[in-house]
Amino acid sequence: MPPAQVIPLHAEPALFNPQTRICAECGVRKFALLGVVDLADLDRVHTHISSIKLSPGQSLYSAQAPGLAAFTLRSGIVRLERTSERGERRILRLAGASDLVGMEAMLGQTYAADAVACTDVEVCRLPRSLIEELARQQPELPLNLMKRWQSALDDADEWMTELCAGAARHRMLRLLLKLTEYAEGDRVWLPSRQEMSAMLDMTIETASRLVSQLKREGVLDTPDQRHAVIHNDALMAALRSDSLSA
Amino acid sequence: MPPAQVIPLHAEPALFNPQTRICAECGVRKFALLGVVDLADLDRVHTHISSIKLSPGQSLYSAQAPGLAAFTLRSGIVRLERTSERGERRILRLAGASDLVGMEAMLGQTYAADAVACTDVEVCRLPRSLIEELARQQPELPLNLMKRWQSALDDADEWMTELCAGAARHRMLRLLLKLTEYAEGDRVWLPSRQEMSAMLDMTIETASRLVSQLKREGVLDTPDQRHAVIHNDALMAALRSDSLSA
DNA sequence: CGGGACCTTGAGGCCTCTCAAACTTTGTGG
DNA sequence: CCACAAAGTTTGAGAGGCCTCAAGGTCCCG
Fold first, then answer.
1. Would the Cβ of A138 be found within 7 angstroms of any atom in strand C?
2. Which residues does the UniProt record annotate as the domain HTH crp-type (chains A, B) (predicted)?
3. pLDDT tens digits along B117-131
4. In the structure, how far is the CA atom of residue B169 from the C1' atom of nucleotide D24, in angstroms?
5. Pairwise CA distance, residues A105 & A109, whole Å
6. Which of B92, B153, B161 sits opposite A152 (nearest CB)?
């Protein structure tokens, strides 16, 4: 359950379902899939949304498992990963607050990847039947879903062009830049070296060497093991000088 | 125009629009987006489908251009590519017969990548308004579109795990395997070394060396510069022994 | 026949991997 | 609270894979 601070609802109609109240107060709702849905409609629906909390390393769902629900991220970062035919784990992309993951469940398909929490994570579970029921009342919902599919595809394409190609140092710099997109405050989540290596297709040792080097260069500081402060101008300067030499 | 062999339409109702007749005779229609659409509905629609032919290297659409139509591939292979911020071209994935490309146009967005013909290509141009008009009559159409988005995402994810990671030789073997998916007969399209290097993130020289080596090993033959015969058992054996040593 | 685009091959060097060891952090139990 | 184990990180040295630079070959087309 999310931390249910009971804030009075002013202009909203009376809501009967306690979960709907939580939705009404949700900080990411207006950016999320159900942001287009009337709270009143949501309140009338039979299937229930449930809130789930995960700790780093915990799995949200697994590839090949029957997809019964999609999930909206309320906070934290989730990684989507796959195991290659050679048996190596590869991180495909990250999802952050207000992102929707596991959309393939809406098509009755099995999940296409593993979803694992990178940080403490809060998600809302949206069962397939809920979305279908709401879609009947809200014709915009399928359109919003399609836009989310396209934006997942854009993310995948960007990941591919920027994080999968070029020298190791350059890929690491691009990763740091990407991590700032998921920042909460001035600190960003700093992946483990293992995670970095699975995202950037390099060894743990190379990832470690690069992070150490960039720390020495003043591109980032690590107040603790799982957080970094990234100095944007130094990062940008490093990226620029990197492009020149290439 | 596609080669319009006039085959009599038996049980079908009379079709008035000459393009609809071409659709009726299209070899890939039942696998394509409009496979779920009644020919009679298609015949009544105001917006027109048009057929386009492209030669290798010709552009179907460009990234950032306003997306006015999606395209169903009737034959040939199209590559989707992007230019990274460093200015390097990267091939993201391939599309083959019955695939739908440029779906982002259905959302009123600009195209997310460049689409370029790799071989001789025939496509059907499906304007946005056509899809919207048909969707009103055919509620299955949006669902089919969503499935295609998901499958594009699956392709992107598979490309990422299998073609973007590991040793150069392994990536090349995986590419040859992928090319067999687009085979017409026993010959597969063999990309130029330039294209290979943009798909696998390696230099032209490395791609050339690997192809030469695999030819010597009997994994493939090249009857001409743009085609190969791939010997599946040798390819599989190479992939297996590759995984063992890793 | 000459030029251009593409492919192939070689030599040398750098980047990244492999293997190994030491260090740091985290968690557990005394 | 400390000791210890386990996991994760850092650093080094050496090897090897891939890149760079360069030259020569092949095919196609004017």
1. no
2. 166-233
3. 999 999 999 999 999
4. 25
5. 5
6. B153
The structural domains of chain A, ordered by start, are 18-158 (2.60.120.10), 165-245 (1.10.10.10)
List the B78 CA – C29 C1' distance (angstroms): 63
Residues 6 or more apart whose Cβ sits within 8 Å of residue B218 = B231, B234
Residue A100 has pLDDT above 70, yes or no: yes
pLDDT confidence bin for B222, thresholds 50/70/90: very high
Nearest chain B Cα to A246, which residue? Answer: B86
The percent of residues above 90 in pLDDT, for chain A, comes to: 80
The torsion defined by the Cα of B132, B136, B141 and B143, in degrees rounded to 10, comes to: 100
Whether pLDDT at A15 is above 60? yes
Please judge whether A112 and B145 are an interchain contact, meaning their C-beta atoms are less than 8 angstroms apart: no
Nucleotides of strand D under 7 angstroms from a protein beta carbon = 8-13, 17-22, 27-28
Amino acid identity of residue A184, one-letter, is: E
**What does the block give as tokens for B110?**
């600009």
pLDDT tens sequence across A216-239: 999 999 999 999 999 999 999 999
Helices then strands (H, E): number in chain A? Answer: 8, 11
Verify whether the Cβ–Cβ distance B201 to A164 is below 8 Å: yes
